[in-house]
Amino acid sequence: MNHFGPTSTRFTRALGVATILGLGWLAVFGLLLSPDDVVQGSYARLLYIHVPSAWLAYLAFGVTGLASGAYLWPRTRSMQWDRIAGASAEVGVLFMALALVTGSLWGKVTWGTYWTWDSRLTTTAFLFVTYIGYLAVRDLGGSHEQRARRSAVLALLAVLEVPLVHFSVSWWRPLHQAETIERGGLKGLMLFSFFVGMIAFTLLYVWLVMHRQRLMMLNDMIDDSGLDRALAERRNEVAP
Amino acid sequence: MDLSPREVVATAPRGRKKPWFAYAVLALVLIAGGVVVAKFLTSALDYYCNVDEVGVKDGCDEGRNIRIQGTVEQGSVETNDATTNFIITFNGASMPVELGSEPTGLFQECIPVVVTGKVLRADDGTRYFAGEEVIVKHDNQYDAENEERLDEANAEAAACSRKG
Question: Residue B30's pLDDT is what?
Answer without folding.
Answer: 94
